[in-house]
Design goal:
By secondary structure, this protein is of the alpha+beta class. It has a single domain (about 5-285), classed as Clavaminate synthase-like (Double-stranded beta-helix, 4-Layer Sandwich), CATH 3.60.130.10. About 25% of the residues lie in helices and about 25% in strands. It contains 8 helices and 15 strands. The strands form 4 sheets. It has a 7-stranded mixed beta sheet with strand order 1-2-3-13-5-15-4, with helices on one face. The protein starts with a strand and ends in a 12-residue tail after the last strand.
């Protein structure tokens, strides 16, 4: 049975059938999924019971896997998963829900803000693949916003204004919006800002998208308050209901999205209960602009 993709949102998002991603993919199936990503930006795979090794193997069909270090405050000795897997669960290394005042939990609350994975890296991420091993009974949805449709929906004056703008991204900025400022000197160096274009063009299609994220803390050459007000306004535009899909997780769903074309966030859930979500991330091909570290 060949890969089939059915659009499930008026603007984007495809539901995939005809493939068992726990098994090696044929070139034809991998190519069909890649084309689906170009078209739909978010793909949903139901009933895919995966081991970590199978998820990693499937992910490698689409590029090099980004190592999940320098993207959080969890020390190596406290990690639950391998460095090829980003742990976006609410669990500690003993498989128990994180305490309410846990530093890791407070840092991870930043995932509830609209963002693009790894936009805080000099070479930002391409795809993310999130596997729902144990999902929340209520809440814990992942919401996605189509940044291509958001760009297309701008008026001509704003589209002209954003075209050449450069923004600065950092985990310091996104977590700071929630009042998290508890960093070591080493973490502040690790999370130093990088620069990204505000408008990106997908090489395979030529389609433009806004490159927004809660990680943005400034626009190069703009006063910071003016920059943040403009980014807020763009984000409100880009996350209108007509541009947003909310994924209600079923056990063993895998959702794959293109960070170059979307933003996402997680919604609230009961954090006293286990929510085990494991992400692999495909590294991007290069920087969006020639990188200059922010001061």
């Amino acid at each position: 049975m060949p890969v089939a993709i059915r659009q499930i949102h008026p603007v984007f998002v495809g539901e995939v059938s005809g493939v068992d991603i726990s098994q090696p993919l044929s070139r034809e199936d991998a190519a069909a999924i890649a084309r689906g990503m170009d078209e739909f930006a978010v793909l949903v795979f139901h009933d895919q019971k995966l081991t970590d090794e199978q998820q990693v193997a499937f992910s490698r069909n689409f590029g090099e896997i980004e190592r999940s270090i320098a993207s959080n405050i969890t020390k190596m000795e406290d990690r639950r998963l391998s460095v090829e897997m980003a742990d976006v669960s609410n669990l500690d290394k003993n498989q128990k829900p994180l305490a309410r005042d846990s530093r890791a939990r407070l840092f991870n609350l930043g995932n509830r803000l609209w963002h693009s994975d790894s936009s805080f890296r000099a070479v930002p991420a391409k795809f993310s693949l999130l596997s729902g091993r144990i999902v929340a009974d209520k809440g814990g949805h992942t919401e996605f916003a189509d940044m291509r449709a958001a760009y297309d929906g701008l008026d001509e004056e704003t589209r002209s204004q954003v075209e050449e703008l450069i923004t600065e991204h950092s985990l310091l900025f996104s977590r700071g919006k929630l009042g998290f400022t508890d960093y070591t000197d080493e973490e502040r160096v690790t999370f130093r800002p990088v620069r990204q274009r505000l408008v990106r063009t997908l090489p395979s299609t030529g389609r433009k998208s806004l490159y927004l994220s809660s990680h943005i803390g400034s626009i190069v050459g703009w006063p910071v308050p003016e920059a943040l007000d403009f980014i807020r306004e763009l984000t409100e535009h880009a996350t209108q209901p007509k541009f947003v899909y909310s994924h209600k997780w079923r056990p063993n769903d895998l959702v794959m999205w293109d960070n170059r074309q979307t933003m996402h966030r997680v919604t609230r859930f009961d954090e006293t209960k286990v929510r085990d979500m494991r992400r692999t991330t495909i590294a991007g091909e290069g920087p969006t602009v020639e990188q200059v570290q922010a001061a």
